[in-house]
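Morning!

This is the sequence you dropped in the shared folder:
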Amino acid sequence: MTGTMVHEQWSSRFVFLMAAIGSAVGLGNVWRFPFITGENGGGAFILIYLVTMAAIALPILMAEIMLGRMGGKSPINSIIAVARQHKKSVLWAVMTWGGTLGGFFVLSYYSVIGGWALKYTGLAVSGTFAGIEGAASEQLFGSFIADPAGLALWHTLFMAINVGIIVGGLRKGIERAVVFMMPLLFLLLVGLVVYAASTPGFSAAVEFLFTFDFSKVTPNTFLLAIGQGFFSVSVALGAMMAYGAYLDKSVSIPSSAVMIAIADTGVAILAGLAIFPLVFSFALEPSAGPGLVFVTVPVAFGQMEAGLIVGSMFFLLLSVAAITSAISLLEPAVAYMEESTRFSRRSAALTVGGVCWFVGLASAFSFNDWSAFYPLAVLGVLEGKTVFDVLDFVATSWVQPGVGIMMAVFVGWVLSRDTVMEALNMNGAAPAWFGVWYFLVRIVCPLAVLIIFASAVWPDFVTGLLGGMGE
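The structure's back. Tokens below.
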């Protein structure tokens, strides 16, 4: 069972889009995008974000899906196959080794946060948030993450759900999950926005998110926009390449990639319209990150009449978004093991999922027993970071940008222009958009992603440099 195995294909373009959008739409859409939008000029930030998404994230997304379809295998074996077919060095597979391992480590700690979403779905359904106030909500969350056994239990449940889906393969596992979960996610989100529109804080939320306040735009705003767009569509972690391998040759990659990017951005904006009206209606603090979702928002649910229903819908939405992203992070490593060893799909999924679960325990313990353990403090940039922080920082600030740069260089400079055109189903003269995309992949994307990487390693230097250029 080594490289000659024949993979299943998506049953339709719609199913592929549901899976790819599910991969892109995750926890960051719900808790990070709305906040950084409001804090960085509202509509001004969205405008900058859309431009950087179109110029950087979208071209690399297209390139990644294209490479997956060209190879038709797991990301690692796809690049090896493409390199051999076009007489290029198989050492280029280092980028997909990096992406696959990066996705594996992201999943190990993402599963812990996914477990939080599952736990809070249960709390919402049981009516735990009824009448809860700020201090009590903070204590509830604090006591939850301080319990290593509890975090490990919910991490285990979340990982088990994802392994169970992946065991089923493409048609019986991933497809069945996304065809059910993604429409559910959209319905829940629209329902929450409709409810939020009836609250007194809706106008304040719209102003927070959409007012064009260019006075809040700084050099750091551009870095945030580039980074958010790049990370949001789930590129450079093997997920989109793995999904591209199952894509029929007749499906248009450019139009599919555009739809994925639009849906991902739309979900993030709708999430802001669902969350912030509740925050403003009850005069709560729109703090960023987990504090917003697991501390602040439950207080709003506890004070509203329909809090039981709305809160249950919200945390179910969060859980669905987490699961659809997580399965795409697990698939590349499982597909590689299935292709390259004698392991069956079931054995590969259980093995990879089990090891990922074990690694994830260290992240779970980072919030309690190991909260003062900084494994790589000797490296200045990782000083003061727990296991959870280290995995997050290395995967998203080093591995993902590094893989993104290599992917852009491989498509833009290593493969020939004719090879790329053929892979995108172009016969004859290239359309006008191709020249723009090709320029972006070759020049703009590598430079922009290099800036993301540099800003993570030398933040003060990069911000100062950009600030100086803007004077």
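Headline: The longest helix spans residues 307-340.

More detail when I'm at my desk.
O.
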